[in-house]
Structures are given as structure tokens and as C-alpha cells.
Design a protein that fits this description.
The protein is mainly alpha-helical. Helices cover 73% and strands 0% of the residues. It has a domain of 197 residues.
């Protein structure tokens, strides 16, 4: 039944290929680069799509996004062009509405955009701080050292890093997980660049697939959950399709990995005090976020920020404890240096000794919660601000309705949702997913699960299609490359198609 359903959709699409080819080109230009993230505008009050203001705003956004795509070549942080573009676009939006005597709509729309961004920003900031704290306490380093020091074969490391990426990413997010596992692959592989290349591809695919069945695994799933479209427990029905998405290319790529033993690596790592408490507190924080959303009908960010407050309180304990240990460890001579050994007066020596004591203590590595906050991905957070406001403004000009009609009106829900995954590989899954959420097409629960799946795993088709892929390219520069990843895109594509088929099969009741 499910197979026939998919075949019917395919047959219908082929019969109308000439007309839909033109539609597809329109979608690439309009539905993706135009409607984007219009979170604020459920529908524009007026249609400015043919107005010079609308066209100007589209040009501004396209130029800004082109600079984002060329970030690595230009060495220009992706947040800078979109933040500037956001201010320009909303200035034009305000002018357009004022020209028809409306002085309220633009202000209300931008405030709604800011509210949506604030929830996302604070949620991610809390999550990033927890991850940074666990890293500072040595949790990830201990895992990495254990893996590289066990003497596993290259093929075993290939499967272990992929499996761990799939398991960890639903909790720690796909970007952090991919970086951690890529470090392991590089440490074990050493000069065997062919192994490191294939292992990194496997890690990126596994991390993206693992993040697709968890509200915390990817920004796109987080957005779907915060929007209230899919409940927290509803994401887990995507586990089997996500697993298939990773396993099929992993099995194919594993045949290229030799069974030889890598050079032995000996390294020691220790957990710092309170490491497991932080892990437990992170789990409690996730539970609070889920409870706030499911039981109190409050935004999940409320639970996350409460957990961040508890982490800050625990950080105070760690700071007092480490400072006390430093003071207790100082000898009597450090507190009271001998005046005879210096040519300075007694009081000067005491003052200098006190100063030296403070300096020594400050140079020792104390836990500081604000250091963890500083290490958050601020460029990414600011990019979200710019992109949400940029395309929120475009949505206020009427492009949201245009994109919805092109994608879900002409192509139909199934084809449009499958296309979302392909487009995610070309641009970025975050703007594409925001576009779908902003359009809010009338779809069944199964279709919403489908677009969540495709947006999450579609970015694996190319190395630039996901944050995990881009980050690993930077970490394994010159080894894990765009063209190296593309050589295996056919295998990843098979996994992508198979995951969609499995979703139709196991979640048929949701359609």
C-alpha cells in the first residue's frame, strides 16, 4: 500500500515533468531565497511582491545570503551580512506600510520576530553553556582518549565513531557530536587520510541522522517542537527511518575501510570534579524544558533557563571549592615571605606577597560559568537573528504566500517535503525549515514528520548542507573536503530515499 502510494506520486510527477520543471526553477528562486524564515508573518496584510520595495528587499537578502555561502572563501563571518540586511529590509518594510497609511503592522510583525528569536536564542545559549561546561570538566575528552587508546582496528573505529555520533547527537546536538567524533577519527587515522575522509563522512551522516529524531538533536527539530507542531515524544517515531538513513551509506562505505590496526596512541585524561553532576543536571534541565512545554503549556526555554540558573549555582560551588584548595595548598612561606631575602621593607614585602598570592591563585584554572557562556557559538546565534528578521520582513511583504503556493500548491505535500531535504543540502536546512514552518501548509501529521526527517538528514547529501559538515571540513581541513564527500553522495542518496520509504512504511497511520 505504501509502496503504491509512493509510486503513484512518482508517476504523477513524471507525467507533469515539463510544467513542474519550470515550477521547480521558480521554487529555487522564490520559495527558498525569498520566503525563508518568515516566522512573524503568518500572512502578509498587503502584497508588495511586485512593488519596488519588495524587489529591493529580495535583492538585499540574496546578496547577503550569497556572502553567507561564501563565508569560507571570504573569511567573513556569516552573521555580519544578514544582520545588516535585516535592518535594511525592515526599514523598507516600514516605509512600504507607511506609504499606505499603516503605521502599526510592521512594528507588530518585527516584535513577533524578536519574540521568536529570543526563545530560540535563550534555549540555545543554555544548551551551549551546558555542553561547554561538560567539555571543560573533561567529559568529552575522556571519551575521546578512551576510544583512541583501546587499540581498535580502523574498521571498528569507523563503526564506533558512527554509532556514537548517532547516539550522542540527539542529546548533545549534531555539531558538537560531529566535532568530537571527527577528532577521534583524526587521532586514530593519523596519516591515513583515506580512512579519515571516509570516517568523517560517516560521522557527519550519523550525527545528522541521529539529530533528526530528537527535539534537541538539530535546530530544525527544535523549531518544530517549539512551534508545537510535533510533541516531544512524537519525534521518536523517526528513529527507524533515521537509523536506516545512516546504516545504508555506512555499510557501503565500510567496504572501503581496511581492517588494519592503526599506530598505538597512549594518552591520559581525567574527569574534573563535578563532571557527572553537570551531566545529570543537563538531563534534569531537559526534563524541565519538556515538562514546561507538555504539562505547564509554557515555552520550553523556561525550563532551560531554570536549569542554567542551577548550573550557575553549581559553578559558584566549584569556584569556592577550587579557590579554597588553592589557599590551603599555599605554604607558610608563600603567605609570609622572609624580609631578609629582599631589599624591601616588611610591609612592602607583605603587600607584595599578598599580591603574588592573589596573582598565583588567579592564574590557576578555576571554573567560571561566564567563560562557558563566552564560548557559545555567538556567530551562529547572531546569524539566527539576522536570518529570522531578514526573511520575516520578506514574509511581511507577501513572499510567504507566494512560496507556499509554489511548493505545496503545485507540487503537493509529499514531493515538496522530499524537495525540502534536497534543498537543505544546497543551502542550509535552517532557513528551509523556517520557510516551511512559516508557510504552515495544511498537512497531515505524517507529512510534518516527513519534512522534519528530510530537513534533518537531507543536509548530509553535501558537505556544505549541514552545520556538522561545515564544522568538520574546518577541523579536518584538506582531508575532509567537498569533493571527497560528493564521491559518496550516491550512497548517502540511497540512504535518504530508503529512510523516506521506511517512514511511509512504519508511520503509515500518521498519514
Amino acid at each position: 500500500m505504501i509502496t503504491n502510494l509512493v509510486l503513484d506520486h512518482t508517476k504523477h510527477s513524471l507525467q507533469q515533468l515539463p510544467r513542474r520543471l519550470l515550477t521547480l526553477i521558480s521554487i529555487l528562486a522564490a520559495a527558498l531565497l525569498i520566503p525563508g524564515l518568515a516566522m512573524a508573518s503568518e500572512g502578509a496584510s498587503h502584497d508588495f511582491t511586485n512593488h519596488w520595495v519588495g524587489i529591493t528587499c529580495v535583492i538585499i537578502f540574496v546578496v547577503a545570503y550569497a556572502l553567507v555561502i561564501g563565508e569560507e572563501a571570504l573569511h567573513l563571518r556569516k552573521s555580519k551580512p544578514v544582520i545588516i540586511a535585516a535592518g535594511l529590509i525592515w526599514g523598507f518594510v516600514a516605509f512600504a506600510y507607511m506609504s499606505i497609511g499603516d503605521t502599526h503592522t510592521a512594528g507588530q510583525a518585527v516584535r513577533h520576530n524578536l519574540l521568536e528569536f529570543a526563545e530560540l536564542f535563550l534555549f540555545l545559549l543554555a544548551a551551549m553553556t551546558f555542553i561547554n561546561t561538560m567539555e571543560e570538566r573533561g567529559v568529552f575528552n575522556v571519551l575521546r582518549v578512551w576510544l583512541v587508546s583501546q587499540g581498535f582496528s580502523l574498521r571498528t573505529i569507523f563503526w564506533m565513531t558512527g554509532a556514537l555520533a548517532f547516539v550522542i547527537s540527539p542529546i548533545a546536538d549534531n555539531l558538537t557530536t560531529a566535532l568530537l567524533m571527527a577528532t577521534v577519527a583524526m587521532a586514530v587515522g593519523g596519516k591515513n587520510t583515506a580512512f579519515v575522509m571516509v570516517a568523517c563522512i560517516n560521522i557527519v551522516v550519523a550525527a545528522n541522522a541521529g539529530g533528526a529524531f530528537s527535539p534537541f538533536g538539530d535546530i530544525t527539530t527544535l523549531m518544530v517542537w517549539q512551534k508545537g507542531i510535533i510533541p516531544f515524544q512524537g519525534f521518536f517515531v523517526l528513529f527507524l527511518p533515521s537509523l536506516v538513513n545512516w546504516l545504508i551509506p555506512a555499510v557501503i562505505m565500510s567496504f572501503s575501510v581496511p581492517k588494519e590496526q592503526p599506530d598505538a596512541v597512549t594518552e591520559v585524561a581525567e574527569l574534573r570534579h563535578g563532571a557527572w553532576f553537570v551531566v545529570g543536571l543537563f538531563i534534569v534541565t531537559i526534563a524541565m524544558a519538556v515538562s514546561a512545554h507538555n504539562f505547564l503549556h509554557m515555552p520550553p526555554v523556561l525550563g532551560m533557563m531554570t536549569g542554567l540558573g542551577l548550573l550557575k549555582l553549581f559553578g559558584y560551588y566549584l569556584k569556592k571549592r577550587s579557590y579554597g584548595a588553592d589557599v590551603a595548598g599555599l605554604s607558610h612561606a608563600e603567605h609570609f615571605p622572609d624580609p631578609a631575602e629582599n631589599n624591601l621593607g616588611e610591609h612592602e614585602i607583605e603587600l607584595d606577597g599578598a599580591h603574588q598570592t592573589i596573582a598565583d591563585a588567579s592564574e590557576r584554572e578555576h571554573y567560571n560559568i561566564f567563560k562557558a557562556l563566552e564560548r557559545a557559538e555567538w556567530d551562529t546565534l547572531m546569524f539566527f537573528y539576522g536570518i529570522i528578521l531578514c526573511v520575516g520582513g520578506l514574509g511581511s511583504l507577501g513572499y510567504l504566500a507566494l512560496g507556499s503556493e509554489l511548493m505545496y500548491g503545485d507540487l503537493g505535500a509529499t514531493n515538496a517535503n522530499i524537495l525540502v531535504g534536497v534543498l537543505s543540502a544546497l543551502v542550509d536546512n535552517i532557513p528551509v525549515m523556517f520557510a516551511v514552518l512559516s508557510m504552515s501548509p495544511d498537512m497531515s501529521h505524517g507529512q510534518w514528520l516527513l519534512v522534519t526527517l528530510t530537513a534533518g538528514v537531507g543536509g548530509s547529501l553535501l558537505s556544505i548542507g549541514s552545520a556538522a559538515g561545515v564544522a568538520v571540513m574546518g577541523q579536518a581541513r584538506g582531508i575532509y573536503t567537498f569533493f571527497g564527500h560528493m564521491k559518496w553522495s550516491w550512497a548517502i542518496g540511497l540512504g535518504y530515499a530508503a529512510s523516506i520509504w521506511v517512514h511511509f512504511l512504519v508511520n503509515a497511520d500518521a498519514f
